[in-house]
Amino acid sequence: MPSGKRGRFPKGTPVLDAARELGVYVESVCGGRATCGRCQIEVQEGHFAKHKIVSTLDHISPVGAKERRYVEKRGLAEGRRLSCSATIEGDLVVDVPQDTVINAQVVRKSPIERIIERNPAVQLCYVEVDEPDMHKPLGDLDRLKAMLEKDWGWEDLLVSQHIIPKVQSILRKGNWGVTAAIHQDMESSRPTIIALWPGLHNEAYGIACDIGSTTIAMHLVSLLSGRIAASSGISNPQIRFGEDLMSRVSYVMMNPDGREAMTKSVRAAINTLIEKVCAEGNVKPEDILDAVFVGNPIMHHLFLGIDPTELGQAPFALAVSGAVHSWGSELNLAINLGARVYVLPCIAGHVGADAAGAVLSEQPHHQDRMMLLVDVGTNAEIVLGNSHRVVAASSPTGPAFEGAEISSGQRAAPGAIERVRIDKETLEPRYKIIGSDLWSDEEGFAADAERLGITGICGSAIIEVVAEMYLAGIISEDGVVDGSMAARSPRIVPDGRTWSYQVSNGRQQITVTQTDVRAVQLAKAALYAGIKLLMEKIGIDEVDTIRFAGAFGSFIDPKYAMVLGLIPDCELSEVKAVGNAAGTGALMALLNSSYRREIETVVRRIEKIETALEPRFQTHFVDAMALPNKTDPFPRLSEKVELPPRKLLSAAGEGGGSGPRRRSREERAARRART
Amino acid sequence: MPSGKRGRFPKGTPVLDAARELGVYVESVCGGRATCGRCQIEVQEGHFAKHKIVSTLDHISPVGAKERRYVEKRGLAEGRRLSCSATIEGDLVVDVPQDTVINAQVVRKSPIERIIERNPAVQLCYVEVDEPDMHKPLGDLDRLKAMLEKDWGWEDLLVSQHIIPKVQSILRKGNWGVTAAIHQDMESSRPTIIALWPGLHNEAYGIACDIGSTTIAMHLVSLLSGRIAASSGISNPQIRFGEDLMSRVSYVMMNPDGREAMTKSVRAAINTLIEKVCAEGNVKPEDILDAVFVGNPIMHHLFLGIDPTELGQAPFALAVSGAVHSWGSELNLAINLGARVYVLPCIAGHVGADAAGAVLSEQPHHQDRMMLLVDVGTNAEIVLGNSHRVVAASSPTGPAFEGAEISSGQRAAPGAIERVRIDKETLEPRYKIIGSDLWSDEEGFAADAERLGITGICGSAIIEVVAEMYLAGIISEDGVVDGSMAARSPRIVPDGRTWSYQVSNGRQQITVTQTDVRAVQLAKAALYAGIKLLMEKIGIDEVDTIRFAGAFGSFIDPKYAMVLGLIPDCELSEVKAVGNAAGTGALMALLNSSYRREIETVVRRIEKIETALEPRFQTHFVDAMALPNKTDPFPRLSEKVELPPRKLLSAAGEGGGSGPRRRSREERAARRART
Question: Do A670 and A535 fall into the same domain?
Fold first, then answer.
């Protein structure tokens, strides 16, 4: 357990051997010497009707001398046994704990809830090497290799260059007992000794990192137990070169050393984050032996030191789309000198390794049902598919969903409005601010507001307030703030030739302007048009399930996203936020190299749609400017939410009229969204 | 020709395809586009009785359009054809020239006389890559790989890290036509793109380097044609850390930064030498893509950045004995960033990669006859064997053979005595000095001597003068300068309690002292004792053929070496100097990677004898102190040279007597020689 694999073995078979024979991954560093403590298992006692066996502690061998020595020296939790020493003496249900903790480290709650079957690319192997012998003058390294072949079956080992000068002193320091870290990512590649320590070395870590345009997120995880030691994030310092990706590409184009400066900057930030997770997890950076990275194509290129200019113009050519195998030292990462790096493949010029990570995490390709996977950022990356077929595209949503280009927009921080409700009768708003649990109409809110301030509207609340304005009839189906409502509420205020809605009028005026509504419309129309293209490509009218990846998805209410028509109609219970799915995919690829092969295969299979090349994108975009959509019905949403009656208005400030001129403005917007 | 391989092919088969099918190596960079000119062949016309065919120019297709374009643009020597374009139309004897010269480079006379069949680890492959396509968003690198697989059959290509950031600009600069250098050293390793150029790149070079303690020697060779572009040498600057190897090991032991300083120093010298051979051969250092190194174990370790201290004390443990695969950039070599490095395996703690190179060059393991291969330096490396069995050892000859520790010894330079003859009647010497073609008793010598000076005795002449002294009866069988001869000649002069022989008494007194003779005896006894151990190990009394490798062997007269008993009795015509055999072996491994596999296999098979562990070494050493030897007869030598009658003397200054005290001195010497 938990794999459920079963088999028959002769009495006296070590549990570890049985596990290996069944293909169940149980770590062992010391090679059965009962010194590393990595191969812990537990026996489940009881009558297991399902398996038709009775499993009891009598069916496992008693603790022997070697195991007792380990227990006395290091201790072992109640019920735990070392599977290299305990032998099978009868029917057993054996549990392989997924949190094996050595040296009494603190166990933290894992931020990833799933259990990832482990098969890391790096393995620790302890060996006792023959001492030098004048009669058989094999070199130190050669005798080490011979023993790694004899004890662990590693043939034809390569050796990281940095180890060669150190072999002799490490062997002598360990009194000829050493632990080697062996990296083998795939069957066809030759295994390599990437690190070497004197004596038994019982710690091997990896990092899984998602390099976002705004935030870099990282998990630090034990490759031996799968335990997440720390998870953290840091701002991407490239922001000083440009908020959004395209302005960073421009920076590279305009500045001779721009690419190099950006590469240095992102790698430095990653090193800072490595320091941070290591401090948090109490792990030495030299114990990090493997690293997996995902990121959008531009971050991917800049991290690898590649000029991203080509990604800023058609045909949006990636310099490299396949998975990249590299070394930490090549990328100047402050981890073990021999550490390896794996970068997930990119799907297309606008659909990066981060989208590949999200696909790996959410596994649409293993589903019978049709899954829509959306990662909303400055660019929305959209994947749609099931086990038969997967298609992908990106849509230029712009920064509105991140709170930029919104008059009262701000980052999610204390004092920012994060929830909004508008009374359909009075048009009065209620809201919550980050840092307070109270709604603005509840007792005690005033004190909280006094303390925290009411400073702006954060990205996710933008969706909510515009949707609520629409549901309350403050804005029309085509997104115009209805000035005639000013008669009903002082919250509707004139703003030049257009109207705004006043959410809060405390120390700071917080209003939603006509321009704000337009920005949200443009962003959501781009996203929806991209989704529609993929649905058309596959030939479906509806999706079965929707996954929102990324921070944005975690905070928005699916209902409001659907009211605004960001996403197609779907059962609300089937719309789920999955957090940093890209990072989870990276973690999976870190802990199990077969996931690397899986995503490489899937990415080759994914059909890519370039929205800029699709003539129907513009039509879908124009239709999607309406709330929730000009042509598509939202029957499932209508069951849950009372949508307002149709109301078409034109905003005075925009020149009025819904004739040709209006049309042409939307077309311009569509064109803008596509470049 | 020259391989002699033959086969039948359908009419119309391109000659290049036929060659490949037969396993004959014919280079091609452009992949059959008739643009690189590397696949040149010549048709031999005539009636070939041996092959029972008539080969005529009518049997090869006429020059077609593509080939004509090449000829017009680049020119082609009379009789040459491009085998990618010329097809077989009848019986042909085809010559594959071993000197294919492109772009009218000067052909130099090759310092290596043998023809080395080529199969280099690096191959150039020109491809035309698909342009980027938004509908199939494969990355630039991925499309390059796809084309290298399609056109050249390379599957599963890896890529050198330094190329990744450059791929996009190189592809665009070459207008999607690029030349990739692919490195694959062995079947089991994955091929790797190590360099990339825009357009057709038609030059690929390699260096083969022997890192000697005194001199570093290098060949620069075209990997495409096998042509040696330059060969040169440079002094090993480590000499400032210590003349001999052991003093360099001491330097490392005594100085905290000693190892690093020595490594830097030898790598810098290699880079200087690379500049030198590149200037000489008119080759760009960036066109060097592969490098093969040999060296004694201490140079091997220092070059690779390994502390050699362990090699200075029992059990003389090598840090690494097997072949080392590395990168030029890892070793700070100033060659192409992606260039590979291969270092031949070491045989034992005192028998290095240089000895392995000499074995590869002289191939005792492919001989039926018993070959003795000796490389004399401060340490003599000795290999003995044939196709059944090969044994190896080293013997601590000390620096006497290099002219050090000899009172009048000096480097081989103008004015140094290089040849000596002593008249058996008058005991008068005749000699030649470097820089003059005359013997000292010939007319005109005085003028040469006036011009050049007579400055000392060079290493090789030391052997000759001591041997001539012995043949003239000036020294006894046990190496004592016979003071009683002073009565016969004023050349025998007292020197404290011993006697010296005066070779020249011009401006500089040049004498051979008793101490000089002793130094030569100690050195030659150590060498001979080592050889005897190996002969005993194999169970033979005589060897069939002897090879002297190294500079020393090139200058000594085999006869005198045998008179002194450096080497065992053998037909004099079977004693050959083979020059820098280690360097030749490196060159072979550079031009043909199957030689790498061959020497790796042979080295594993070679039985190593540690002279310090063999109790019989001392006995052999003491016997070998005598001239030519106390116990071994030299029947073949005696047929050619009249050896003097036995004469035993003891040198007064050494305490006299041949009793226990004398014995113990020789034993001390033997012990000294073994530590």
Answer: yes
Task: Assess if residue A1 is contained within a domain.
Answer: no
Report the alpha-carbon angle A452-A456-A457, nearest 5: 120
pLDDT at B116: 80
pLDDT digits (tens, 9 = 90+) for B347-362: 998 899 999 999 999 9
Q: What is the 3-state secondary structure (H, E, C) of A235-300?
A: ECHHHHHCCCHHHHHHHHHHCCCHHHHHHHHHHHHHHHHHHHHHHHHCCCHHHEEEEEEEECHHHH
- Min mean pLDDT across A111-115, A441-445, A576-580, A635-639 is at A111-115
Contacts of A546 (CB under 8 A, 6+ apart): A371, A372, A373, A374, A558, A567, A568, A570, A574, A575, A576
What is the Cα B270 distance to its own chain's centre? 16
B469 falls in which pLDDT band (50, 70, 90)? very high
- Residue in chain B nearest A259 by alpha carbon: B165
Is residue B637 a contact partner of residue B572, using CB atoms and an 8 Å limit? yes
* pLDDT tops 80 at residue B76: yes
Q: Does B615 touch chain A (CB under 8 A)?
A: no
CA distance linking residue B566 with residue B525, whole number of Å: 7
Give the separation between CA A152 and CA A124, rounded to whole angstroms. Answer: 10
Confidence label for A579 from pLDDT (cuts 50, 70 and 90)? confident
Cβ of residue B57 closer than 8 Å to a chain A Cβ = no
Q: Are B528 and B636 part of one and the same domain?
A: yes
Query: Which of B184, B318, B597, B600 has the highest number of chain A CBs within 10 A, making it the mutation to test binding with A?
Result: B318
A332 shares contact with chain B (CB less than 8 Å) = no
Bridge pairing between strands B192-198 and B158-159: parallel
pLDDT at B447: 93
Q: Does B141 touch chain A (CB under 8 A)?
A: yes
Q: Are residues B83 and B221 in the same domain?
A: no
Structure-token match 């603005």, residue found: A440
Assess whether A505 and A525 both reside in one domain. no
B622, B531: one domain: yes
Are B608 and B547 within one domain?
A: yes
Contacts of A158 in chain B (CB under 8 A): 325
Domain-located, residue A633 = yes
B347 touches chain A (CB under 8 A): yes
Kindly state whether B210 is in contact with chain A, defined as any CB-CB distance less than 8 angstroms.
no
CA distance A459 to A400: 8
The reported pLDDT for the residue numbered B459 is 80
* Measured distance CA(B86)–CA(B59) in Å, rounded: 10
Nearest to B161 among A189, A326, A347 (CB): A326
* Range(s) of the domain holding residue B448: 403-513
Q: What are the beta bridge partners of residue A494?
A: A499
Considering only alpha carbons, which residue of chain B is nearest residue A141?
B320
Structure tokens at B620: 């052999």
Q: Which pair of tokens denotes residue B615?
A: 């109790």
Phi-psi region of A176 (alpha: psi -120 to 50; beta: other; left: phi over 0): left
ipTM: 0.86
Q: Which of B456, B483, B513 is the last residue of a domain?
A: B513
A672 pLDDT tier (thresholds 50, 70, 90): low
**Would you say residue B3 lies in a domain?**
no
In a shared domain, residues B392 and B410: no
Last-in-domain residue among B160, B176, B198: B198
The tally of domains found in chain A comes to 5
- Spatial neighbors of B638 by CB under 8 A, at least 6 apart, are none
pLDDT band at B106 (very low <50, low <70, confident <90, very high): very low
Q: What is the mean pLDDT of residues B527-540?
A: 96
Partners of B169 in the beta sheet? none
